[in-house]
Design a protein that fits this description.
This protein has one domain: Porin, CATH 2.40.160. 12% of the residues lie in helices and 54% in strands. It is built from one helix and ten strands, in the order αββββββββββ. A hairpin with a 5-residue loop joins β3 and β4. The longest helix has 19 residues. The N and C termini lie far apart (36 Å).
Length: 162
């Protein structure tokens, strides 16, 4: 079930990317995020699909070193509310992250058989800043909701607008 959901989510994201075309002017960004939807470290691509800052989608790939190495694939939608014209935004989003390792961040108990992947739902609220040099930084609260319950989490990112 989770692989079907993941495939469908990627298909929808890439359809949005294709339909947005080349008319986006500095509405695209690539950034490195510590914490957040990718859990510990991830590289993400974000595109605003509305003409003005507003609705956006994001997809990324992340990792963290556990035994074994853990891979994460965060995808999601976000909406930017303008705080200061073209430079300062409140960002609200909802995403899902597939991870190769169980995202409990601590071990409650040993489980009988590990799964091949885990899904987490991640709502987010935060602050995003765009600079005059086409850079961005963001800070957000990103709690993780999965089979382990509700886990408070946060993230910070730095990247480039294009």
């Amino acid at each position: 079930m989770s692989s079907k959901f993941l495939n469908l989510s990627f298909f929808i994201c890439f359809c949005f990317l294709q339909s947005s075309g080349q008319s986006l002017n500095k509405k695209q960004s690539i950034y490195v995020e510590l914490g957040g939807n990718g859990f510990f470290t991830s590289v993400n691509y974000d595109v605003q699909v509305s003409p003005k800052p507003g609705l956006g989608i994001r997809a990324g790939i992340g990792f963290y070193k556990l035994k074994p190495f853990a891979l994460t694939i965060p995808i999601g939608v976000n909406y930017l509310f303008e705080v200061q014209r073209n430079t300062s935004f409140m960002e609200v989003g909802l995403g899902t992250t597939w991870s190769r390792a169980n995202a409990s961040f601590y071990v409650k108990e040993k489980r009988a058989a590990p799964k091949s992947g885990y899904l987490s739902i991640i709502p987010s609220i935060g602050y995003r800043r765009h600079t005059k040099k086409a850079l961005l930084w963001r800070l957000s609260l990103t709690p993780v909701i999965n089979e382990n319950g509700f886990i408070p989490f946060f993230g910070g990112a730095f990247g480039k607008l294009f």
